Queue: 2 jobs
Job 1
Amino acid sequence: MGIRVLSPGLATSVQDLGRPGYYHLGIPISGGMDRFSLRAANLLVGNDEGAAVLEAVFLGPELEFTQDATVAVTGADLPPKLDGEPRETWAAFAVKAGQVLSFDFLKSGARAYIAISGGIDTPPALGSRSTYTLGALGGHEGRNLMAGDALPLGQASGGAAEGRSVPAKLRRAPGTPAELRVLTGLYWHRITEDSGRNFFEDTWKVAPEADRIGYRFRGGQPLSFVDRVPPFGAGSDPSNIVDSCYPYGSIQVPGGTEPIILHRDAVSGGGYFMLGTVIAADMDLIGQLQPNTPTKFVSVDMAAALSARHDRAGLMQEVRNALS
Amino acid sequence: MKTRYSFGGDEHIFVEVDEEMSLDAFFKSLSITNAVRESQIKGVTEICPANASYQIKYDPDVIAPDDLLAELKSLEAAAEKSESIIDTRIIEVPVFYNDPWTHETLMRFRERHQDPDSTDLEYAARINKFTSVDEFIAAHSGAPWFVTMVGFVSGLPFMYQMAERTHQIEVPKYLRPRTDTPKLTVGYGGCFACIYSVRGAGGYQMFGITPMPIFDPKQEISYLRDFMVFFRPGDIVKFKPIDRPAYDAAVADVEADKFAPRIREFTFSLKEHHSDIDGYNKKIGEVLHGN
């Protein structure tokens, strides 16, 4: 008993906080791209913060409930409807067995988190219910949802309280342009000083190739590289390196043209130079960027990265306090 | 070799052991990452050795970035004194070179290739100055390979041939990556061989296919029941050329769950390998095919 998928949306998947510990084997952490929203959705329905939820991108699914439950939708502004009646985002609401949850068109953001009391109870794989489609691992049969799928729910804690909501001041959405803070490093020395300056001065746009593996950007000037004799094993293109690991959030620029930021389903390594890494505090924001969103990269140092991290943790704590 | 340390945002430390690939750089990366694992530093969540570099993911709320950096530097100093001896395994991987499935795929993506008029094997043989594809295959399946990194996607091994640099095979990647690669394709890019663990996009040249599954998320295949990923960094691989009947037989064995890879335990010494590469590689072959 739980929910039945009437229509799956565009790419709806089961996600929790991910499966750390296997990146050295090419299995990425996966999990919600916007973890702040995922945690908040769970808290609203009385779940553990890390319970499995549905992550819907751009287009919501249509779900029929086969049992009573409490539901909350956070993240993108993807307005929920219950049997056609509008419901609020960032708020808990009751659903009765037999009712259908559907969604209106996306107003802002990119990914909505649908938490259901008890959590999605698909079998964990390597300690997590997160879906990693490239490896056919976790979630519902290792893939995005399809019409006709039935998903089981776990035992609800009983702590759900309908009508509770996350105060608007505690919600966070990307600005215009979106600003992503970057700690330069890794192979930053491979590009010229001018290129480094341009990278931060230019306004980029999210490309259509933007998914859970990575977000691609267009519109800035191509980067010029510092001359070199290619190191053995690196390859002849100036953007090549001897294949190495890729940090989550790292920014690679194949051929010096289109930056790609790796996200939670990252390829764990490869042969392209990276000029730096988006700080952890801003990773959630990337998951809410739509294609064509103007984006600026902002250079910060480690102290600023840690301070942003601290602020982010503080905001999460305020959400916990508000919902306790 | 000159080690370079860099922060990858606030949650990673990236360490380039050497700018260029060598067995020495790989061994240094492997011994440092082994030392990091053994030292059980609080806050470290991922330890990823790569070909000539490594990466640590950590929680900066538990250990300050500069403190972890200092720990890694001290482990590097210790690793430099280590003997470069590892207990590992030698694995025989059967390869059906020039198979119909990678051939069909490479023909489909010919316009993305440097040389649209030849196959990936013909191209690789020519630019590496072999007189024939057969001679190229003999070299590819001759000297054994080290698994120097596992990654990109689930369980995909990068392999570096245990040969003099002058005998290393080098090929560029496709001009533009393919959108399709058959599962278990034996590929090549730069100085690395790989085996595609899953079907998907890829830019490496395609030489053949193995019947031996190396990733099984369902954990149904006997030798992947304990863990879904077969390879680990430090494994030694020897390719064995097989023909179509042998390939079909192996696939049938895999389906009947009767396929068992040939694996032998082995203690590898980098110093001994350096002093007599051909002799040492021969010894690896003898261990593999002895009792």
Job 2
Amino acid sequence: MEVNVLAFGIAKEIFGASSIIITLTNDATVSNLKYLLEHQYPKLKQLASYMIAVNNEYALDGDTVHQHDEIAIIPPVSGG
Amino acid sequence: MTTQIKIADTHLNPAECIEWVMSPEAGGIDIFIGTVRNATKGKTVVKLDFECYEAMAIKEMEKIAGQAFDRWPVQKILVHHRTGTLQIAEIPVIIAVAAAHRGAAFEACRYIIDTLKQTVPIWKKEFFEDGEVWVAAHP
């Protein structure tokens, strides 16, 4: 399946786009997604940390992702 | 228990925020106003850019307000945050809390701004005279 990954802040600069398409297996987890993202965009590994959000909630590595989920990469936040 | 949460790309107005949290039941209001500082670690800052994942940011701010209502006897919570470009001394964030007694207002206000900085998906980029950097992105 193909999923759309939204990017913000420095992640947008690393991707060179505000969203990218990633191809995953149907039962893929957040951990699988992170592995593929880091493989395609090694600069992600230089970040202090980053999280994946699924449907506007922080997701855990073991959570499954589905084709129509709203997925986003959340680099270290710095609001306020 | 009333909450007002807003993400705006235009000037934040402290007077309007104070007006909104004021009520006859309140014994005090506590307000935190963030302002853009002209330097970071000795380097001159020219301006800041704020970017936001709005749908999730609003959800996270609502969660924080809910946690504050659970933990302290507060009556009203307001959280306003800016996006876009801010010049020195402009206001990126306002937190205002009304409570019957000052202790709860102070503590809830501090909890809200501290937690917002840790969990709400908003990012700031600092522009210096010789470059720019996404704050907190790298170790």
